[in-house]
Amino acid sequence: MKNMRRRIGQGVDVHAFGPGDHLVLGGIRIPFERGIEAHSDGDVALHALCDALLGAAALGDLGTHFPPADPQWRDADSRGLLSSVTSMLAERGWRPGNCDVTIICEAPKIAPHAAEMRRAIAQGLGVDWSDVSVKATTTDKLGLCGRGEGIAALAIAQIEEIE
User: Fold this and answer.
1) Which of 14, 60, 113, 124 could lock 64 by a disulfide, CB 3.0 to 4.6 Å apart?
2) Which of 149, 125, 121, 150 is nearest to 135 (CA)?
């Protein structure tokens, strides 16, 4: 049996809060007293994950493939972006392995939604939900997330060579 090649990538995304009554995070809708200022649906979790996957495959970043200045990506569903990224990987002989996503915010509380996010992300990647970690942290009221100005996410993802 030959050794399977693996690569790891990381991603980061940040968006400001804006008017609205919900957020989209990890591929799910979460009721909240504010929305996200973004060209697409503003799903920082999936955007960071897409960047991690693209980085692992040395394919650039999300903005390279889905430029915010391009009107076709206006209000784009980030689950579709994740699907496109997964297809790009497959075309080059890679598939997603496991991933870990950390959402940084004071609110909303992420823990009540983490399991549903894990399932949505796993479905989008075509992996078992046990290969997906979603967690959250605060910044102890420091910085833009701590002041409630916005939300951020960090992601790390492993990709594996398709045999």
Assistant:
1) 60
2) 121
Q: Which CATH architecture has domain 6-161?
A: 2-Layer Sandwich (3.30)
What does the pLDDT profile of the chain (163 residues) look like in tens digits? 567 899 999 999 999 999 999 999 999 999 999 999 998 899 999 999 999 999 999 999 998 998 888 888 888 899 999 999 999 999 999 999 999 999 999 999 999 999 999 999 999 999 999 999 999 999 999 999 999 999 999 999 999 999 8
Euclidean distance between CA atoms 50 and 44, whole angstroms: 10
Q: Are strands 35-37 and 150-161 parallel, antiparallel or unpaired?
A: unpaired
pTM of the model: 0.95
Per DSSP, 127 falls in state S
Taking the domains of the chain in order of start, what are their residue ranges? Answer: 6-161
Per-residue tokens: 15: 């968006």
